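Hi R.,

Here's the chain you asked about this morning:
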Amino acid sequence: MGFIPTRAVHQLDNMVYDARLRATMPGTLDPRVVIVDIDRPSLAALGPWPWPRDQLARLVNTLFEQQGAAVLGFDVVFPQPDPQAGGDTQLANALRDRPVVLGYFFSNEPTARTTGVLPAPVLGTNVLQGRPVRITRWDSVESNISELAQAVPRAGAFNALPDKDGMVRSLPLLAEYQGRAYESLALAVVRRALGSPPVEPGFASGLMLTRRFSGLESLRLQHDGHTLVIPVDERVAALVPYRGRGGPEGGSFRYVPAIEVLSGRLPAGQLQGRIVLLGTTAPELKDLRLTPVGAHYPGVETHANLITGILDGNLPVKPDYALGYELVVLCASGLLLAFALPRMRLWSGGLLGAAVLVGVIGLNSWLYLRQGLVLPLAGTALMVVLTTAFGLASARFFGRPFESPSDWPAGLSLATLRATYGVDQIATEQDRQRQPDVVWQEIDRLRLATGGAPIVVYTPLGPNSELPAGLRDELRLWQQALRAWRAQDWDACDVHLLNLQRQNAKKVLYRLYAERVASRRQLPLNPAWDGATSIESIHALQPRTGPAGDTMPNSQ
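And the predicted structure, written out as tokens:
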């Protein structure tokens, strides 16, 4: 059940991931990335978006010349020429020969048209050909006009990958368009900040893995003699390591209104050495997204989170072996419960189920917190709960073997008793009273020590509401045979046992008592006899077998 990718189980796993993400967010300011915000006050002061390109050129010059920005990334696109003559040229001149990454986006909308100029792809088709890599494919693109694209050859796509519930939990690092792989805005900004190292694919390796089965596990960047490994999922996307609630008040990143930069109110050098992203929090510009940490989360901050996560090498990942992990844990816990629960009492079975559940959750949580692995949990947890509940409910109707009392002889096992009487389960009076809805068959009275009170032992026949009429008649006849046995009325007992064996010829219990009656006939009647069986006599008995030589179970 657990490893079947049903929508309900996936949604439960998403809820678990979201709760963990919110619980483990650092909630602290990361000073490396600053967001220049096209917010409502800026729109009120400078007019509606898009702003004239000469104003944007002045904004770019200010960010580099007065503020000392290290890299500037645009979470906006310029698909149309500026209505004002010369505006595009001014902006192109401001962007040229500077560490800038433009933005653009792909689309699969049927009515979307391809416009603008794309940057160079980061991976060729020959690198991924023949491998099971499922990069998200797009049909059209809206990119920047030629003049700006020529001034800034570096650009990245700012698409998100919402899940079925609309949540943005991950962003694609690569996108496929017309057979070529293009990088995302976050990846392009990171590469520009590191000196533009090439993107190298990291494939799964192993002796048994051929090119056909070796999927893409990571993207790798070489920097200062070190390899920066960026783990990816099956869509070549990365989970966003959200730092906080988002927005100017969220406290994860510094937000600077664009009007403060353009008006000169921001003191010079405030953004020295920072990665700057130009984006918006204005609702009318429609770049607020539904995320696990906030319902109106600025899209530009999702890129900021991913950028810092990549730089830190601290990205949670859904590995390609997630289903294999779930199957192993599911089978291990399921087999443990299936083997142990039928041999345990109600309270101990409940404790075992709780312990297995805690162990499954604990292992999963440790792998998430220590290794950054996002692995499925809901399916296995549900299996443990349902298996335990079913096992405990079955105990209510079918009973469980009792645990040996402290004075029970160490040399006499419950397996010996079950084999002697030919039943599947042995229970005491305490078990019978605890489960009044079950029909019990008394099988004997066992005396543990000479002179001691005997212990009545039973075996369950089934739920009272479901017991067949024929089995009820058999039970009544058996009770008459027991009364005759304890009254030392061997003739009556023989008659009852003969009729019982005619009804159920394979029942070991009836043949056992027929042999006992034949043995007791050789002895004189004992006025003090109560029909109990001594432990010593059990030791002397061999397991009873049916016609085929198998130890007979509790037949019905």
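The first strand starts at residue 33 and ends at 37.

Let me know if you need anything else.
M.
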